[in-house]
Amino acid sequence: MSASQTVSDQIDQQIDQLVAENALFVGNHSGGKDSHAMLIRLIKRVPAKQLIIVHASLGEMEWPGAMELARDQAAAAGLPFIVATATKTLLEMVERRFESRPEVPSWPSASTRQCTSDLKRGPIQREVRRYAKANGFKVIVNCLGLRAQESPGRAKRVPFRLNERDSNSVNTWYEWLPIHNLSTPEVFGIIEDAGQKPHWAYAEGNDRLSCLFCIMANKHDLKNGRKQNPELFDKYVALEQRTGYTMHMSRISLLELTA
Ligand code: SF4
Question: Which long-range contacts (C-beta less than 8 Å, at least 24 apart) are formed by 170-175?
Answer without folding.
Answer: 170/129, 170/133, 170/138, 171/129, 171/132, 171/137, 171/138, 171/139, 171/140, 172/138, 172/139, 172/140, 173/140, 173/141, 173/142, 174/18, 174/23, 174/139, 174/140, 174/141, 174/142, 175/141, 175/142, 175/144
